Each structure stands twice: as structure tokens, then as C-alpha cells.
């Protein structure tokens, strides 16, 4: 048995060394010796879990799959407009309260298990609604289930940063996020090819995709259940509300975290600007069918696939510099897109190229900010950082999303100019961030 375990450990070590390009697979910066010895196995297990979870996200996309389900069920367009805000803010807003409960548990991986199991159950319920209801009734039913799925995602989001911080050392977290992004890009790329070739026209009902997504969520829960996590700090694990309020106070007392949140809030423009690139393409009058949509999904997946690992390595070197560089790139891309809108130069091929560049930079934003917040603090503070930051960003997403939507209704040009200015401000603030 000992020989078998040693052989398995050695195999994990060799694969891990290959992925991170490190001769000594046990170099650890800020985790204990016991956790350090099992880094290779945990790295590969978490990477697998994140990849499978991306399969679930792709099969249940609130931007693609659920709107198609709504259209096939005769659901009014009003409901489609609520999908993304509910999915994103629903998982971010309650994280401060979730963290208040989670603080008293020395092992946080079980919150991941609960979160992904909840998502799986919710997706099964959503599939049932899709096959048994129509019209507005189906819309309200799916939105109700989506709230539950989003809350479950909140559990997963808070716990995942903490578990990774406890099991993966500094200088390796960026690589983990980068490989996950590239693997996710492969899945999105294949999905985009199916759209571009209009293979999905054969799908009379997309509910089976939701069942598949549920299965992937359950598998993700199992993967995280096998992560070898050692007990951590449980400071402040008493009253959940009191703990949550104490956590929120770090916005007043921790200047580095407050600065990071300011940068992250301004860099919301990287995600919020993407639909406006597609709006410009739609005004070109070229192919606007399913194939045209598939081309955008395809280039987005290709961007993630080829850039994730690069951004991961860059973030391990300096996630602060990644934030600065990506902010400047977003400013340029939004300004160029605004110029094209102003001059009415909306050729589909050109906008596709801009969207491809934006997708590459957006991956850098995601990998850079995840790596930075993981490295900025250790122990109990990491849970507080993630929960407080995500809750605040959830509120700001709703506010900024509504404001930019109103502005875009008057002028897409000025909305893109606003995003460019936000990115420039983020770059300026990011230069003041400390190296971590």
C-alpha cells in the first residue's frame, strides 16, 4: 500500500512539475509543511474540478442556453433581460453573510461541496420547469430557481478562494487560474463551433443540457470533497451577523484592500463593455443569425484557450502589473470601438477582431484580480477579503449596469467612452497597489 501511494504521489508530482515548470514541486511560500507535501495532488484535483465546473457553466449559460430555452417556450423577452443580473448579483450579494457562517469551520471545502450540490439540484429543477411550463409561468419559474442556483454559487465563490489559498502556494495560484481559463476556452470554443455550424438547430429542447450541467456540478462537488485540506483559522466564528459586520469594517481599516476594491470596481468595464461590441456588430447589417452569434462565442473561447496560461504565468510574476497592463488595454480597445461607432465603421470582421482582443484582455483581468486577492492576505483575512469584495461588487454591478444601460440607450458611443475612462482610472490606481 505504501509503495502504491508513493507511486501515485510521484506521478502527481511529475505532472505538476510539468505544468508549473518547476523542478522542486514542494516549493511553498505561505502554507504549512503538511499542506505543502500534498500540493501536487491538490493542484491537479482543483484544476480538474474547475474544468468540470466550466462544463456545467457552458451547458447552463444565462447568456445563451437559458435564453434559447425561453424563446422555445414562448417566454417574454423581459425575463431574458433579468437572467444575467440575477445570476451574477445573486451569487455576490450574500457572500458577506455566508462568510460570517463559514468562519467558524476549520475546513472550508465542505462549503464548496454544498454549493456545487445546490447548483446541481437547482439545474435539475430548472430543467423540469423548462419541460412542464410555458410563457410567463416558465419565466417566473426559471428565475425563482436561478435565485437558488445563484445563492449556491455564492457558497462556492467564497469557499473556493479560501481553499485555494490554503492548499496552493504563492507563485502557483496564477498558473492554476490560467490553466483553468485555457481549459474553459477549449469548451467555449467547441460550443462556438457548434453554433457557427448551426448544429444546435437540431435541438428541439435544450433541457437535456441543463441535466448535463447538473451532473457536471455534482462531479465538481465530489472532486472538491477529495481535496486534502488542513484545518485553518476560525477566528470570529461566533455570531454570523456580528462576524459579517466585523468583516465589512476592513474597508475602513485596510487601505491596501480598499485600493484593490476600487481598482476592481473600475475594471468592471472589461465585462460590461462586451455586449456593446456585439451591438456595434449587429448594426453592420451582416450575418446576424445563429452563425454570427457562434462566431463571437468561438473567438471568445479561442481567446481564453490561448491566453489563460500566459496570464497565469504573468500573474505569478506580478499580478499587480497584470492589472495595470490589462486596464490600459481595455481603455484602448473601448476607445477604438467608440471611434468605430462614431464613424459608423461596423464591419463584422473588424468588430470580431476587437472582441477577440477584448476577450484576451478580460481573461487577464479575471486571472490577475483572483491571483492578487489570494496573495494579498492569508488565513482568516482571505475569507473576509473575498466576501466583502464580492458583496460590494455585486451591489456596484447592479448600479453601474443599470446606469450604463440607460446611457447606451441614448448613445453606445458615450457608453464606450465611459468604459475607457473607467479603465484609465483603474490603471492609474493600480500603480499604487503594493506588490504581493
Quick tags:
globular, transmembrane, 436 residues, mainly alpha, Growth Hormone, Chain: A, transmembrane transporter activity
Specify the CATH class: Mainly Alpha
Q: What's the CATH H-level homologous superfamily?
A: MFS general substrate transporter like domains
- The appropriate CATH architecture is Up-down Bundle
Count of domains: 1
Report the β-strand fraction as a percent range.
under 5%
Q: Please, what is the average pLDDT?
A: 77
Counted by DSSP, the helix tally is 19
Which segments are poorly predicted (pLDDT under 50) over 5 or more consecutive residues? 1-7
Query: What structural class should be given to the helix and strand makeup?
Result: mainly alpha
| Principal-axis shape | globular
Fraction of residues in H or I helices: over 70%
Q: Element order, helices and strands?
A: HHHHHHHHHHHHHHHHHHH
Number of strands: 0
Classify the oligomer: single chain
Query: Main beta sheet, described?
Result: none
Measure the end-to-end span.
41 Å
Radius of gyration equals: 21 Å
What is the third-level CATH name, the topology? Growth Hormone, Chain: A
Transmembrane segments: 64-86, 110-131, 137-155, 176-200, 206-227, 265-284, 290-310, 322-340, 346-365, 385-406, 412-431
Keywords: Membrane, Transmembrane, Transmembrane helix
Protein name: MFS transporter
InterPro entries: MFS, MFS_trans_sf, Sugar_transport-like
